């Protein structure tokens, strides 16, 4: 198995680049299926969030053109975005996956949402048959690593999330959220988190609009808010002082002309938009209007910086855990890959042993049961001593870079057959 990862995230690209490669939840299953069918890919998973889009695949020989997948899926030339893309292989890919799951690569180190998002991506991949035993082992190990980091460090001790940081921004703009009217556009988990934080800081009435109205009704009911039908959004949004938008729309749903109307109805009272969607829900041109303040996911970085120093020592401990777990994971998978060679070697030597015992019987004639047992025990002991060094050497080398070379040498020395690789079947 060879692991490869290609991605773009908040560290390598601004939101206007990330949104070009974002895959909405409604299309994730279909995209994952297409990735699994892409030439050279045996297993695959796609993680698409507001801060990252990453393709993780396993292949037999590592020759997989993941940029070709982006080119075909998005029907665009990816070369203009090359400086924003990163490609990782083998150990680096495993380390990156572990760090992402443990929230060490997040914009807000320690935020808990990313683990849930990776688990959702995994569930989708499993559901469409894109993840089998090999990739399954790496991904589930990532979940275990995230749990260990959470339990053994304080990196996620304080409750920080994109939603909570968005609320902190709103407090800076208005000074106080007491009595402020809030409009949640989109009724997903991020909106629910935002609602909890807003109410905890004294926000007044909450309006919720969602394309699926029943979901808006459900969320509004939890917070004694009011559900608004999505087709009434532009007629009612001006009732809010703060709009937090996180839909899965492929294009902006709030544009400059909407902002002009909102301000007219509000008699130029300020209106605050926090856009935590990727692709963005709010056209940046809205920010040019006096009285409207727009912050997108990248603008949250300034608020995030204040909590990073407090978490640095805990993050360093978490990084050490990740590195140790990467070693363990790769050692297990490398040992797993050399098992067929070890079994083949044992079978070949056992075949030779049995053949030689049969020849000896022809020369020696009938042997008593005691003699049979003695010959069997003697030849097994010789075989075990002969095989001990090559097998232990193979197992030890499985952790090193020269494992493939040594395995090939053993196969050639003992004339072991090289079987055609078999694709793992779903569990």
Provide a concise account of the structure shown.
With 427 residues, this protein is an alpha/beta fold. The protein has helices at residues 15-21, 25-37, 66-74, 91-101, 113-127, 133-152, 162-174, 189-200, 213-222, 233-236, 256-265, 301-364, 369-397, 403-413, and strands spanning 2-9, 43-48, 52-59, 86-89, 182-185, 206-210, 226-229, 242-245, 271-275, 292-296. It has 3 domains: 2-158 and 312-329, Glutamyl-tRNA reductase, N-terminal domain (Beta Polymerase, domain 2, 2-Layer Sandwich); 162-290, NAD(P)-binding Rossmann-like Domain (Rossmann fold), CATH 3.40.50.720; 331-413, no CATH class.
CATH architecture of the largest domain: 2-Layer Sandwich
Strand line-up of the largest beta sheet: 7-6-5-8-9-10
**Gyration radius, rounded:** 29 Å
Number of strands: 10
State the end-to-end distance.
Answer: 17 Å
Count of individual domains? 3
Strand fraction: 5-15%
The CATH fourth-level homologous superfamily of the largest domain? Glutamyl-tRNA reductase, N-terminal domain
Order of helices and strands: EHHEEHEHHHHEHEHEHEHEEHHH
Shape: elongated
Task: Indicate the mean pLDDT.
Answer: 87
Helix fraction bin: 40-55%
Main beta sheet strand tally, sense and closure: 6 strands, parallel
Please tally the helical runs, counting DSSP H or I stretches of 4 or more residues.
14
Unreliable segments of 5+ consecutive residues: 420-427
Q: Which structural class best describes the helix and strand composition?
A: alpha/beta
So what's the CATH class of the largest domain?
A: Alpha Beta
Do you know the CATH topology of the largest domain? Beta Polymerase, domain 2
